[in-house]
C-alpha cells in the first residue's frame, strides 16, 4: 500500500470525509441537495454515506460518540476497514482521506484500519490477479499528520503483513529452517544482528525440550536469535521477546483430531512470527532500546522416533519433565528459550505463544491471556498498549496452589495439569524457568481467525505485533526525556 500526503489543494477523486460530529457537516463543500440527503442519512444513524457524483464518489464516515478515547479510535479503524471494502467494491485504486475537524489520531487510525483490512493472502490462488484488491494507494489530506507518522504506520502495517504471511504459510513450504531463514532475511534488511542455531548447537546447549518435540520430525529444529542494540540504548539490561515457533502442531503421538483442531495448526508459530515482526519494527523505527528476540522452532509430529507419553526429558537448565501428553509441546520448547534468555540478564522477558486451547476457550478471539511473576509498572504499560491498539490483555493468576497441578511422581514436573485451568498450568510450567521479570502472553484465541473480524482478516492476524510495538514505543518515550525523544 502506498501511503502519501496530498500535495494538491484541489481534492482528488474518491474522497472520504471523516466527521467527528454531525455538526461538522457545514464545513464540507457539498451542494444543497447533497447536504440535505446526507443530513437525513446521518440522523438515521447511518455511519457510512455514499454520495455518487458524475466522475467520482464521496464517502462520509462518522462514528457514534464514545466515552473512552481508545474505543473511538478502534471504531475509526473499523470504519477504515469498511471504507477499504467500499473502495474495493468500486474498483478504486486510490482514496483520499480528510477529517473534519482535522485530527491526526483519527486519520491515522482510519488509515490503519483501511490498510490492515485490505490484506490478502493470494500466493496460492491461481486466480490471484482477478481477486486482488484494487486499492493500492491512500492519500492523506491533512497537514497535522507528519511524514514520520505516515512512515511509521507504513512500517508497522508492512510488518503486520509479514507476520500474517508467515502464519498463513503452510508447513509444506515453511519448516523450521525456512522460517529461520526468513527471520534472518528480515534482520538483514533493518540492521538486526541475527544468528540461527542449528541442531548441533541445540544439542550442544542441551535444549532437551526443543529436541524432544523435534524427535518425530524429519526436519531439524532451529533456534533463532535476533538482537537490536542501538548505540545508546535507554535500557542497560535488554528486553527479551520469546515466541513459540511450532511450525505445525499435529499433537505428536497424542494426535489432534483434524477438524477444527489440527487443520489450522500451521498457526502455531504465530508467537514467533509476532516477536520477530515486532523487533523488525523496533529496528526500523530505530528505537533506542536494546532488544533480543528468541524463536525456538520445530514441527510437532508423530514419527518412528517421536517422543512418547511417559518419556522423561531434561531441559537445558537440568530440570526434568515427564511428558504425559505430547500435544503440550509449546511449553517444552519455550522452557529452553526462557533458560537461554537468562544469559542476557534481562530487564524483562515477554513470551508470546499459541499455547493452550484453554486460553482460546476462555477469551475467544478477543483477548490475550497474560500471566506474570511480577505485576508492576511494566505490566501496566503493556496493558495500556493493549487497550490503545485493541489487542487487549487479561490477567490470570499464578497462585502457588496451582503448582500442585504439574507435580510428577517421577520427575521435577509433568507437562500437563489436571484438565482445569489449562492456561494457568501451562503458565506455571513456564514460570519454573524464569528468575527475572517475566510476562507470558497466551495468544491461542486471537492469533488465527476462521472468518474476518473487521480489519483483522481471515487467517493469521499478527496479534502481538501492534501490541509490542506500542509497548516498546511507550516505554522508550517514558525512559527518554519526553514524547518522541
Ligand atoms: N498449539 C496448541 C494450542 C492451541 C489451541 C493453539 C488452539 C491455537 C488454538 C497447544 O500446543 C496444545 O495443543 N495445547 C493443549 C495442551 C494440553 C494437551 C495440555 C491444549 O490446550 O489442548
Ligand atoms: Zn500441542
Ligand atoms: Zn502447540
CATH superfamily of the largest domain: Zn peptidases
Helix proportion of residues, in percent? 25-40%
When the domains are counted, the total is 2
Distance between the termini: 28 Å
Extract low-pLDDT stretches. Answer: none
Principal-axis shape: elongated
Structural class by SSE content: alpha/beta
List the helices and strands and how they pair.
Elements: E1 2-5, E2 15-19, H1 32-43, E3 48-52, E4 57-62, H2 69-89, E5 94-100, H3 104-117, H4 128-131, E6 137-141, H5 147-168, H6 176-190, E7 193-197, H7 199-204, H8 208-214, E8 222-228, E9 239-243, E10 245-249, H9 270-285, E11 291-300, E12 311-314, E13 320-323, H10 330-341, E14 348-353, H11 357-363, E15 368-372, H12 377-389, E16 393-395, E17 413-414, H13 422-431, E18 438-442, E19 448-449, E20 459-460, H14 465-479
Parallel strand pairs: 1-6, 2-4, 2-5, 5-6, 9-11, 9-14, 10-11, 13-17, 14-18, 15-16
Antiparallel strand pairs: 3-4, 7-8, 8-11, 12-13, 15-18, 19-20
Helix pairs in contact: 2-3, 3-5, 5-9, 6-9, 8-10, 9-14, 10-13, 12-14
This protein binds ligand BES and zinc ion (2 copies).
